[in-house]
Amino acid sequence: MVDRNPWLNIFSHAVLIIGVAIVAFPLYLAFVASTHTADAIVQSPMPLLPGMHMWENYKEALLGSGKLGSNTNVVHMMWVSFVVAMIITVGKIAISLLSAFAIVYFRFPFKMFCFWAIFLTLMLPVEVRILPTYKVVADLGLLNSYAGLSLPLIASATATFLFRQFFLTVPDELVEAARIDGAGAMRFFKDILVPLSKTSIAALFVIQFIYGWNQYLWPLLMTTSEDMYPVVIGIKRMLAGGEAAVDWNIVMATAIVAMLPPTAVVMLMQKWFVKGLVDTEK
Amino acid sequence: MEDAFGLSTEWVGLDNFRNLLSDGTYLVSFQRTALFSVLVAGIGIAVSLVLAIFADRIIRFAMVYKTLLIVPYAVAPVIAGVLWVFMFSPSIGVVTHYLGKLGYDWNHLMNDNQAMALVVIASVWKQISYNFLFFLAGLQSIPKALIEAASIDGAGPWRRFWNIQLPLLSPTTFFLLVINIVYAFFDTFGIIDAATQGGPGQSTSILVYKVYQDGFKALDLGGSAAQSVILMCIVVVLTVIQFRYVEKKVQY
After folding, report:
1. Residue B54: inside a domain
2. Which of A6, A75, A254, B198 has minimal Cβ neighbours within 10 Å of its Cβ?
3. Which pTM does this prediction carry?
4. B6 in a domain, yes or no?
């Protein structure tokens, strides 16, 4: 920085600490709640320091099933969430790589039309097209299946757009060199384009994994059988009993467990994620 | 329009739209959505701009602050809603308890405005990390030479922020404005469903929530589909604005 003003620096730290405290407080409180007995939480005000019941609560949350109002345990729900998030992530990246490849490197009739069709249709969030999508999936008999959970969410305009922008910056000389060396289209794609776009793929992986993991509305409509609930739905279901009947300690323990995978992904891949996030949208 | 068992379907032309537009609750929901998205976008952008400005200044612990601030991005909207309801719950919430001690009665199950405030706060909380990252990236791409020149000319920190950094951030701000409005319109479904379920009455039932309520709870499929079409038009308009921006960039 240009000038060194110690007071201003202290002030900056103070503002940031307050900001972080406010942002982190709900998470901290959830953690605290997950370490107490249900009775301790219902007392007003609830304790603000972690209690002694952490292991019981997490064990109950992960493996117990009696209290949750559903017959499946959280471990299973986490598994469903994980599978769906992975299918969506991998599928999205594969599809958008290929479609961006087609749009940038091939000339075919109605190319511009395809380009715009992709954007106009796919920019629409699932929330907007729930009814028609539901109808299609139901008619295909995909309700309560992994395919039904992930397929409608798998196409992505933003990812396609990102890869398109990136492919446009790849110099033509590379294409020519590859052709002279006798590489076909797919060979070029596999050996040159994909390795070049590694960073973007890593960033998209983070973004899409979180997107897939946190899906709520679609699974809510789609799944009627309990063994296909993702964990996010599971948490919501635990609250169905009304405030007094809810075991907040178990709910919060589950919430913490459900937050861990996406948080871990974001933190571990922070560098690529931030770079990718900022590049993607611009 | 379908009958109750879905046995016969009748072609009604634009009747669904006509019903919708003459339906008072729909128009109210429209206003609610507008208010909601303006609040979410405005507060979210302001708060994260302040945080980003200060985070840009300091060097020590910057990484720690940054890491902590991006965590909400990873939290699912529903979980965010649950966390905030837990804090503000009328009977057991911690914040409610201390507000009560200060003489302020909080009950979002009864009070429209408090319910709205709750979903706005939860939505802003969830979106802060995103805005923060963009502002930080924007601030760091401003050439240091500009700032140095200004301070040689005698501009203090406040002046430098107001006359140099803020104008140079205007493209980022505009972009975030669009993104935040889209977010408030569509991605807040989970928060609302977990926090207030559109209530009390219809006071936090924004458009997306109403599509779901009318279509899947009240089974008015035609009306719900008509609402979807209207929402779709809004998304297309917002997308077009966003893409024009991508091509041109906002100049100041």
Report:
1. yes
2. A6
3. 0.81
4. no
